[in-house]
Amino acid sequence: MTMSGKRVVILLFLCIFASSLVCSQDAIKKAVDSINHHLILREFERAYSYANFILRFYRSSTIPVETLDAVERAVGGWADFLVEQQQWHRVVELDLALAEAPASVRAKVQNALSQARDAISKASENEQLEAEKQRLAQIESALQAEQAAEAAREAAFSESQQAAQTAVQDIAAQRAVATGPQVAQLERMLEESRRLEAEREAARETERLESLRRQEALEASRREAEASYRQELTKLFELMNSGNTEVMRDVASSNRTIVLGLIALAAVLLVMVIIFVLISVRNQRMQQEQFKSTLQTMQAMRTIQPEYGNLALPFAHQDIGNIGALPGSNQLLLDGRTTAGDTDSVAVKRLLEKCQSYGMEIDKVTGRRNASRLVADLVYKLSRQLGYSESDSILFFAVGLVYDIGFLNIDPTILRADQINEDQFAQIKTHANLGLNMVFFVDEQFRNLFKDGVSKHHENMDGSGYPYGLKGDSIPYIARALRVVESYVALISSREYRQIRDRDAALRELAEHSTNYDQKLVKALDAIV
Question: Is 419 left (phi over 0), alpha (psi -120 to 50) or beta?
Fold first, then answer.
């Protein structure tokens, strides 16, 4: 890469870096303004979203003081708003999201985080207490039911005891008046009553012991529930702490992924910029080569003094007006047609006269001396050397007279200047397209041939020419012939290239630039000059 290319690359990198800095600073300033605006309107969540953008932008970098102050106010406002709304879980999420934020920013959330943890703990305790109350209420209901059953049993026992006492009294009364057998019967009844009473007492004792066992089981269940609640609460706080650690790890992993993605994106952008720079440098180099070649060709051809004795055409000694019918040809013309039958000698005579007239006008405005005639002579001889017919070669000769006709619509001072700038060069390049509309004087049957020569004689074999960027065989023969002949004439006439004023050096120069010139035509030219 040349020094100018390197300068272009460095300048592009500096421009991209400067523009990215300016854009990023504009984005940060807009974010700070948005934070202040939303804080005034008490739109805390939107203000926090802009603060979050600033934190992601700076990451581990130092945040400017004014920007950091806006971020702290936005985070503090959002945390206080969540506390007012008692959205405790969102407060915890906010603290986790700020895991890598500066300490002053995280400090704005600590008070709200403490309240959130207390509220979450109290809520959990209240839920556990409510469940415990429900269990105790169930135990209390069971105890009351047991007490009611016990009272019922006591009442039944009292009744049975009263009935037994009544029976004893009745037996005693009867004993007093009863005979011996009756006393014995009463004694048996009394013994039975005592036995039943003992069985009832044993049943009551068993029931009491069973009630005590149930009460002890309920108390143990209550203690177990309380221990389970405390254990669950401890696990909850441990889970919260482990969640903080895990989230911080996820955030760090996410940041690494984002950084890798940004690096990959930057690499792709860098490759695209390099490709763009290389294309720009290549286009610039091509423009410079075209600029230099065109300027040298124009300047060189002003010094032309052709020796017509060496380049006389077979019909040079004939009066154009006396040219007879030209023989037919089966050679393909540039537009794909063949000359069918005899060429109209009258039409050719008129065409040559007009082309000679325009050729002199072109030489006049460009300051060249007989350049059009010299190029036309060589195009004629080159065509004959390649096997084109006499009639076709004469038509090619006519095109060679007026191939630069577009110059008639360009400021002559530019065409005659020793030095031109790029804007003036751009005007000169338009002559290829301008000439398309200036061959109106050519008969319809020959016009496409003239348009090809006028508009395409600056095309190169590798597609680097202008105005169409044509390549290889897609460039018509007449245009390739004019490209070779014009460059040859410029080389042997140039004051800038005195070391190649001779024909051999000029031909070597054309052969070395195979990307520009058709080498088949260069070899044919070598055979005729």
Answer: beta
C-alpha 472/C-alpha 452 separation (Å) is 15
Residues 176 and 315 in one domain: no
| 14 within some domain | yes
Q: Is 230 helix (H, G, I), strand (E, B) or coil?
A: helix
* Shared domain check, 375 and 405: yes
Q: Which long-range contacts (CB under 8 A, 24 or more apart) does 96-99 make?
A: 96/243, 96/244, 96/247, 96/248, 96/251, 97/52, 97/251, 98/55, 99/244, 99/247, 99/248, 99/251
**Residue 240, domain extent:** 117-285
The reply to whether 62 and 210 lie within a common domain is no
The verdict on 347 and 463 lying in the same domain is: yes
pLDDT tens digit sequence for 467-487? 999 999 999 999 999 999 999
The pTM assigned to this predicted structure is 0.47
103-177 vs 88-97: helix axis angle to the nearest 10?
A: 140
Q: Which residues contact 316 (CB under 8 A, 6 or more apart)?
A: 308
The answer, yes or no, to whether residue 151 has pLDDT greater than 70, is yes
pLDDT score recorded for residue 340? 35
> What residue type is 314 in one-letter code?
P
Q: 308 and 255 in one domain?
A: no
